[in-house]
Amino acid sequence: MLSPSVPSDPPAPLRHPKLLLWAVCALALMSTAGVALPYPILAPIFVNGPVDDFTHFMGLRPELLMGLALAVNPAGILAGSLVVGPMSDRYGRRRVLSITITATLVGYGLSAYALASRDYPLFVLSRFATGLTEGNVAVVRALLADWHPQLDRTRSFAWLNASLYIGWLVGPLLGGLTLPWGEAVPFLVAAVVLVPCLVLLGVGLPDDRPAAAPEGGLLAAMRRQQSLGLVVQDPVLRHLALLQLAYTLGVNALYEFAPLWMLQQADLGSRGIAIVTAVQCAAMTAASLFAARIGSGPVPLHRAARFALVAAVGLLALSLAPSWLGLVLIPALGIPLSFYNALMPAWMSERFAAHGQGRVMGLLTTVFCLSNTMIAIIGGVLGMLSARWIMLLGGATCLLAAIGFIRFARRHS
């Protein structure tokens, strides 16, 4: 039998369930804004920054150093996600969120100090440490799931996704607009943004600590609930995870290195990059809300495969496009990515429910973070040639995944 991922005792009735939903969405928005804030500023910091021990640490190229700085954060999220989920089951969602958000705030402060002191090793270490505590989305989703049916799960998740996309809109905009004030300033802003999150936790979320700790220790809970074991247990999920890895390599090529593309090909600074990124996130927010309104339809897997194909074509076009067309393609690519993100998790949630929702959604997070780390390292090397090569690689892996998804859908939908 599958072990339950949350305590079996139902939560007490909520007096104001909509207030809780709004508090959780606001918490997710502000937390994600802090996570997204550094993305449009790393390319200008490293590639256009001064020639010193930070941007040319150990004589290495700035593109390589930027790739490593990009890679360590999702690597930290990947490692932290194996701990944060079981901890929230054992000690309560609110308590774990309080600890992780406080630790993230401290991590942003360390990143700001490392930039101010031009200490590249400390910057990389702080980005990894911050990643360890940034994987809060799974905990927030679990919190909303705990309160079903007092909060409708489908509608709550739709609002949560929209809040996350708005966070990805607000964060890059803040980062790009504050970078001219100093390289450390965006990270200080990210830390300040998290302070209202801690206030919301205290006043907006009920105390959900279990009356008694679940049987077994934390390590036993982690072994029981970790997601990677699913690829060993289920050959269908293993096949799907490999396709998802190829697809998210392309997606993360866009997420991580579109700022470098805009810097190299369109000569945009931090503010221009932030504006384009904000437009992309706005498109993703609108597409996510539209996808929630129209639902998944009768053949969600086939539709997800088609959107993956559209994304692949867009990435391949971006690798060849002139600067003006690329600045149109980058925001437009957010639309098929959002529809895919709405369809594929919904289909997996229904198809593999027997494995436990937390583990299945955790597998998607694990694959995404793994591909994020991989493309950050590979892209750091290819970026020394041109960001176009990164988009070409991302488009190729996305195209292979899309073809595989189409065949997979014919067999398993």
Q: How would you sum up this structure, described in words?
A:
There is one protein chain. The chain is an all-alpha fold. Helix content is 77%, strand content 0%. The protein contains 17 helices and no strands. It has helices spanning 17-36, 42-47, 62-91, 93-116, 120-132, 137-146, 153-178, 185-204, 218-225, 229-233, 235-266, 270-294, 300-320, 323-332, 334-351, 357-382, 387-412. Helix 11 runs parallel beside helix 13 (300-320) and helix 13 (300-320) runs antiparallel to helix 14. Residues 1-10 have low confidence and may be disordered.
Give me some keywords for this one.
mainly alpha; 413 residues; 0% strand; 17 helices; disordered N terminus
Structural class: mainly alpha
Low-confidence stretches: 1-10
Total count of strands? 0
Q: Termini separation (Å)? A: 25 Å
Number of helices: 17
List the helices and strands and how they pair.
Layout: H1 17-36, H2 42-47, H3 62-91, H4 93-116, H5 120-132, H6 137-146, H7 153-178, H8 185-204, H9 218-225, H10 229-233, H11 235-266, H12 270-294, H13 300-320, H14 323-332, H15 334-351, H16 357-382, H17 387-412
